[in-house]
Specification:
β3 and β4 form a beta hairpin. This protein folds into 3 domains: 124 residues, no CATH class; 55 residues; 80 residues, Immunoglobulin-like (Sandwich), CATH 2.60.40. α4 packs antiparallel against α5 and α9 runs parallel beside α11. It is flat, with a radius of gyration of 24 Å. The strands form 4 sheets. It has a 4-stranded antiparallel beta sheet, with no helix packed on it. The protein has a 3-stranded antiparallel beta sheet with strand order 5-6-9, with no helix packed on it. It is an alpha+beta fold. Helices cover 43% and strands 21% of the residues. It contains 11 helices and 11 strands. The protein starts with 8 loop residues before the first helix and ends in a 9-residue tail after the last strand.
Length: 312
């Protein structure tokens, strides 16, 4: 739950995202910040802890913690609606009351928990607008950093997997491209469309900006890419291709660069079971237009030790 978001210097430095790390070429997405049930208010530049004046609410900060964290995430997600976030927060707190207190054995505790849930809900409903704005601005900054990392080929990620946007945001971009460009957007175009306006502000104005961007991309020459995988007992092979024919393709898997094909040996272990992971992305550049597209590679395979079940 956020009434007033207080960001530390460490968090602010994180938002710079000057060098976004990657886990073997899959971008590491900085998580949305949650801080439990914050009960601090800022009034005329002064911070006050509500629990100091109303100690009865302190135990419920623990009881409602999971609901408060989900509320933080909802406020921070681009495309979310504040009223809906607050309503879900209210329902989640009331559900926690049902889990913690027995309505029949402890009716007084159960009812008091429900009453406190209403007070927490009222607080965010009436005073949470500034916190929601700040939370979304923080996510916009993280999203811009993620887009820059993907564009620079540091790592691969899609907007749909990033966790920063509602399906309404990514779905609107998809629809705008289908209507105005008669195709799906590339990974790069998806990020650029999301930031063609302010996804953390007026969504009406944002949609107009997305429509305009999609229209401007109507004649862009973009490639499509396909990654295939074959697995045998002792080998995993990846091969990638792109259209139109002649569009160069490369892959980065587990931190190493390859051409359009890559092969990996799977060792058979007598005593130890092994989990092999292959993470990265394939990248294609249009043979004529020079535009790029990527496809993520994220595959794991488990090899059991040959002497199992005796061995572990």
């Amino acid at each position: 739950m956020k009434i007033k978001l207080l960001v530390s210097a460490a968090v602010l430095s994180l938002l710079g995202l000057a060098a976004l790390p990657s886990r073997a070429n899959i971008c590491t997405v900085p998580p949305i910040h949650t801080n439990g049930c914050t009960t601090k208010l800022q009034v005329n530049g002064q911070t006050a802890e509500i629990g100091y004046f109303y100690p009865s609410i302190v135990p419920f900060k623990v009881i409602y913690e999971s609901a408060c964290n989900r509320h933080d995430i909802c406020y921070s997600t681009l495309g979310s609606d504040k009223s809906q976030c607050d309503s879900e927060f209210r329902g989640n707190m009331r559900s926690r009351c049902d889990s913690v207190f027995n309505r029949w054995l402890d009716p007084a505790g159960w009812q008091y928990c429900k009453n406190m849930a209403e007070q927490f809900y009222t607080a965010v409903h009436l005073f949470g607008q500034e916190a929601e704005t700040e939370a979304k601005n923080e996510t916009v900054t993280k999203s811009i950093g993620l887009r820059a990392a993907v564009e620079s080929d540091q790592c691969g990620m899609t907007a749909q997997l990033a966790g920063y946007y509602t399906s309404d945001i990514t779905g609107y971009v998809e629809g705008a491209f289908q209507q105005r460009a008669a195709r799906r957007p590339t990974v790069f175009e998806m990020f650029n469309a999301i930031h063609s306006g302010n996804p953390g502000g007026d969504l009406g104005a944002w949609r107009l900006a997305v429509d305009s961007y999609a229209q401007s991309r109507r004649t862009a020459l973009v490639p499509s890419i396909n990654v295939m995988r074959s697995v045998s007992w002792d080998q995993v092979e990846f091969s990638s291709s792109a259209t139109p024919v002649g569009s160069p393709v490369t892959m980065r898997i587990n931190g190493v660069g390859y051409g359009a094909a890559a092969s990996f040996s799977l060792d058979n272990h007598m005593y130890n079971s092994v989990n092999y992971s292959f993470r990265g992305f394939a990248s294609a550049r249009h043979a004529v237009g020079g535009e790029r597209e990527i496809q993520l590679i994220d595959f794991s395979i488990y090899r059991q030790a040959e002497c199992n079940p005796i061995c572990r």
